[in-house]
Amino acid sequence: MMHLRRWLTSIAAIPILLFTIGPGPRWLFCSLVSFVSLVALYEFLQITSPRLPRAVGILSFTLCLGLMASAYRGQLPLTLGLFPLAMFLLWGVHLFFYASEGSHSIQDLGKIALGFIYICLPLSLLIVIDRQPQGNMWIFFLIVVVFAGDTGAFYLGRFVGKHKLYPAVSPGKTWEGSAGGFVASLLAALLFSLLSSLKQPVLGMLALGACLSVTEQVGDLSESMIKRAYGVKDSGTLLPGHGGILDRIDGLLFSIPVLYLSVS
Predict the structure, then answer these.
(1) pLDDT confidence of residue 173
(2) Torsions phi, psi of 134, nearest 5?
(3) CA-CA distance, 103 to 22, in Å (whole number)?
């Protein structure tokens, strides 16, 4: 049943992604990325800081939207400059309204900063990539390679996996699954380079696919570490069969900066 829900959710999401990333208006793509960023940040804060003051939470979401808007307008320096500004504003709110919280206040600030670095900055770079020549095709490449690797790792690890990859962080992941995900990513990169309009050397696309596969798996393990530290199985319940938004994009978050550096 879990596999059926997983596939039904994926099938339902494919047309939305195809239209939004492809021929859809770019404001719609930015809106989708902004929505994903807000939900993922909410899930992250619910896991790490469930008692976060309401005013700080609202301000953090507002600043996240400002980050996405500046990226959409093509103002990368402003996008990067908004990050320290956001941290200073949140610090100020804590200082004047929640100073009595003591060390918990400092811990929450650290978690909010991590949330911005972990979630909001990479997703804002995705909007910047979209503004590059053939940016939407590069985003398709990213999603195909990362999700192919995630799917390959999940099923190969489930059916033939025997040797644990990192049991202290994620007991279910195996070396066999990791290898299967890597091969699946390479195959996806090869097929995409041969069939898409991206006229790039095949070896270069394979090398990029390999890098994206590695960062995707590190991102997956990193989110598993966060959930294990707080005793949480899934980041949310929004996506049946997958968990939360953060569960679905954890590998993408680590892979987006690699793609950005490759196409900029």
Answers:
(1) 83
(2) 55, 30
(3) 47
